[in-house]
């Protein structure tokens, strides 16, 4: 089983409160790699981002945890130009000082 398959399996088995925390941590790692340019071990090259199939993405989007987040954001009376990505980046900046 590939690392990606194991990671997806582990994420899917998390309770909803920890799934949100895992999402925050993934965002933190992405921000960190943008700032520091993390390299793949022993290669000196930038680590490649994981690739997901469309089926994996569609399945993740339909998960109850993601649907709950989307529902909460839709009911939050946010300005129309604010996206989920903007909110996630603001939260990460606040939480980790990035």
What would you note in describing this structure?
The protein is 64% helix and 0% strand. The chain is an all-alpha fold and 98 residues long. The mean pLDDT is 77.
Number of helices: 5
Q: What is the percentage of strand-forming residues?
A: under 5%
Alpha carbon gap, first and last residue: 34 Å
Counted beta strands: 0
Strand count, sense and barrel status of the largest sheet are: none
Mean pLDDT: 77
Would you spell out the secondary-structure blueprint of this structure?
Layout: H1 3-12, H2 16-36, H3 54-61, H4 64-74, H5 84-96
Helix pairs in contact: 2-5
Provide a quick synopsis of the model:
With 98 residues, this protein is mostly helical. It is built from five helices and no strands. The mean pLDDT is 77.
What are its keywords?
64% helix
């Amino acid at each position: 089983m590939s690392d990606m398959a194991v990671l997806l399996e582990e994420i899917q088995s998390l309770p909803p409160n920890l799934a949100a925390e895992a999402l925050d941590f993934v965002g933190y790692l992405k921000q960190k790699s943008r700032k520091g340019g993390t390299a793949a071990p022993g290669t000196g090259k930038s680590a490649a981002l994981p690739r997901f199939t469309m089926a994996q993405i569609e399945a993740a989007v339909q998960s109850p945890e993601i649907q709950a987040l989307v529902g909460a954001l839709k009911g939050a009376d946010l300005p129309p130009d604010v996206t989920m990505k903007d909110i996630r980046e603001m939260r990460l900046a606040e939480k980790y000082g990035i």
